[in-house]
Design brief:
This protein is mostly helical. It folds into 2 domains: 3-155, no CATH class; 223-296, no CATH class. Helix content is 69%, strand content 0%. The protein contains 13 helices and no strands. The longest helix has 24 residues, at 67-90. It is globular and about 60 Å long. The N and C termini lie far apart (62 Å).
Length: 298
């Protein structure tokens, strides 16, 4: 089968699953890729209407949606379904690599309903925090999706095991410049999404894991300081703010350092003060803000 034919086959599978009716465990990697691809389009278009999603898949304009973003998502979904078809033909198992080739292939949920919830939580978190897109781009978006689908697979674990796994992920992400506060927000969104579509018990140990992260962070940087950090950053930097919510991100990185999640806050600070990104005067003001936050954190 040629790549062109595979692409057409993949596109038909996406069209077939635009109604979002498939439920239960997904055993076909191509279908799993289609479910993820369609749900990312749901977030991008703000619609679950089949006709709207068909229009997006056909390349027709969708009112209120970014046409370049939608086109990129359709192209990516098609590639992932093609990869899923190849996996289907060779009998390969489903893992994160179906929709995130760089992931290394870790476990993700295969329940269609929970998978959609995981995608919505991930993409909603990314859209609410522009830092993700500015720093990590589409690669970050793909990892957010598969990390979210992995997190929901932890729900059935005993609370202590789920917390251990979430804390491990928090260390990995914080070392790459994503303060644990962001994972805390993501988990809250994931719990909310799952509760909206599944039995309340489906969230399992995830609320407890989110609470553990929040308690650890608040020992050093409470919610009031997170809010104040944003106000201070806005006052000090105004239009020179590197990314929205710079202050909160800096405060959260300090919380990680104080709680032992990271050795220091350089993974974030080196990026926001990078001379290739900001002028020297802006970096100086950011460092002054950091000193104020360090003095205010516990």
């Amino acid at each position: 089968m040629t790549q062109h034919v595979d692409g057409e086959h993949a596109h038909r599978i996406l069209l077939d699953h635009a109604d979002r009716k498939v439920t239960g465990p997904l055993e076909d990697p191509a279908v799993l890729a289609a479910v993820v691809g369609i749900e990312r389009l749901v977030v991008a278009t703000g619609s679950t209407d089949v006709q709207v999603l068909h229009a997006a898949l056909a390349g027709r304009p969708v009112p209120g949606a970014d046409p370049e973003r939608v086109a990129a998502l359709v192209a990516e979904a098609t590639r992932h379904v093609v990869a899923g078809l190849i996996r289907r033909s060779t009998g390969q198992a489903i893992d994160a690599g179906v929709v995130n080739p760089a992931s290394g292939g870790y476990e993700i949920t295969t329940d269609a309903t929970l998978l959609r919830a995981a995608v919505r939580a991930a993409q909603g978190s990314i859209d609410a925090m522009p830092y993700y897109g500015i720093r990590y781009g589409e690669r970050g978006s793909r990892f957010a999706t598969t990390d979210s689908a992995w997190l929901i697979s932890l729900a059935a674990l005993a609370e202590s095991r789920a917390v251990h796994q979430v804390q491990w992920l928090s260390r990995v992400l914080a070392a790459r410049g994503m303060p644990t506060w962001l994972l805390e927000i993501h988990l809250d969104a994931l719990v909310s999404e799952v509760r909206s579509v599944a039995d309340p018990a489906a969230v399992g140990s995830l609320p407890a894991a989110a609470d553990v992260l929040a308690v650890a962070r608040r020992r050093h940087v409470d919610d009031e300081l997170i809010r104040s950090a944003d106000d201070w950053a806005d006052e000090a930097l105004r239009q020179d703010l590197p990314v929205p919510r710079t202050g909160a991100l800096m405060a959260a990185a300090i919380a990680d350092e104080r709680s032992g999640v990271t050795r220091d806050d350089r993974a974030l600070m080196d990026w926001v003060t990078d001379p290739a990104r900001v002028e020297t005067d802006v970096a100086t003001r950011l460092l002054a803000l950091r000193r104020r936050l360090l003095a205010s954190a516990r």
